[in-house]
Amino acid sequence: MKQLIIILNISLLLAACGGSNKEEQKTEGQTAENLVTLTDAQFKNAGIQTGKLEKQSISSLLKVNGKIDVPPQNMVSISVPLGGYLKYTKLLPGTYVKKGESIAIMEDQQYIQLQQDYLTAKAKLVFAKEEYERQRELNQSKASSDKIYQQSLADYTSLEILLKSLAEKLELIGINPANRTVSNISKSISIASPINGFVSKVNVNIGKYVAPADVLFEIVNPADIHLVLTAFEKDVNNLFIGQKLIAYTNSNPEKKYPCEIILIGKDFSEDKSVEVHCHFASYDKTLIPGMYMNAEIEVKSSNATVVPSDAIVSFENKQYVFIEKGKNQFEMIEVKTGNTENGFTEIMIDENKAKETFVLKGAYNLLMKMKNTADE
C-alpha cells in the first residue's frame, strides 16, 4: 500500500512538471513569433539604424465643410413700400445690374393721389403763408385779435407738416418732390437697383399686384463673398483669427482656394457646432453664394511622440514598430499611429516602452525577414 501511494505521488509530480514545461514552451513560442534575430551579415545588409523616440510639434489636417455666403449689406431684397402693379421688368436670375439702374416699372392709382395731395398742399401752403404774415402784421398793430393770428399760424404750420410728410412719401417711392409739377403727374414709378450685383431671385411677373411686404427681386453683390464653415466643439480650440486654410468644391477638388479665418462664432448650436467665417484671398466669379465647399485647416499638436514614417510597418491591417532587445535581435510591437508631417508620424505607445531603443531605419527589412522565417 505504501509503495502504491509513493508511485501515485511520483506520477502527479511528473504530470505537473510536464504541464509547466508546456506552458513555458507556449510562452516562449508566442514571444518568438514577434522576435527576429539577424546574423552580422544580415544586420549590415538590412541597413538597420536605431535610436530613441523624439518629441516634437506635428501638424494635422482638420477637414470641415460649409457653404459660400455674403454679408447682409451685400444682399438686397427689393420691395415697393406702397405696393402696386408690375408694369415692366426685364430681370432674370443671373442678370447683372448696376447701382441706380431702373429694374422695374410699377403702376398704381395711389401714386397719382399722392402727387395730387402733395401739389394741393404745396399750393395751399403759399396762401397760408401769406395769410399768416398778414395776420402777424395786423396783430402787431392791434388791428386783429390774437385768436385770428394764432389760427393763421396753426393753419400755416399744419400745412408745412403735411407737405413735408407727403414729400417723404414721394421720395419713398422714388419720386423727387422738388421736380413734381401739375404737368408731370405720373401713374407709374421706376424702381432702381440700390447696389451693383446679380439678380438671385425674381418673385413676380408682369401684371401682378404686389403688397408692400412682398419681395419682388433679390440682388446679390458677390464681390465680398465669404465662406461659412461648420466646426464642432472638440475642434474649436485649434482655430484662431487669421488662420490660413484651403477650400475646394466637390465638383472640382483639384482647384484650391486660399482663405483666412476672420470670425469664429461664440454660440454653439444644438449639435455643438459653431460657424467659422472666412475670407477668400481673391475673388473668383465662379464661386456663387449658396455653393457647398470643403476645407482643410492645418492645426498644430504639441509634444507628440514621433518616429520616422519609415520606422512603421503594416502587417495584417495593424501598425508595428521594432525595438532593440539585444545584439542583432529585435521585437515587433503594435502601435497606434496619428498625424504625419515632414516624414515623421505620431505614435501612441506605453510610457515604459517609449524609453526603449527603436529601429528608425530598416524596419521593412526586419518584417520581411520575420515573415520569411515564419514561412519556413
TrEMBL record:
Superkingdom of source: Bacteria
Q: Which InterPro entries match?
A: MFP_Cation_Efflux (IPR051909), RND_pump_MFP (IPR006143)
Keyword entries, A-Z:
Transport
Q: What GO biological process term is on the record, naming one?
A: copper ion export
Q: Which Gene3D superfamilies match?
A: 2.40.30.170, 2.40.420.20, Helix hairpin bin (1.10.287.470)
Q: Which GO terms describe its molecular function?
A: transmembrane transporter activity
List the GO terms this entry assigns under cellular component, sorted alphabetically: cell envelope; membrane
NCBIfam families the record matches: RND_mfp (TIGR01730)
What family does this chain come from, according to its entry? Answer: Belongs to the membrane fusion protein (MFP) (TC 8.A.1) family.
Q: Any idea what this protein is called?
A: Cobalt-zinc-cadmium efflux system membrane fusion protein
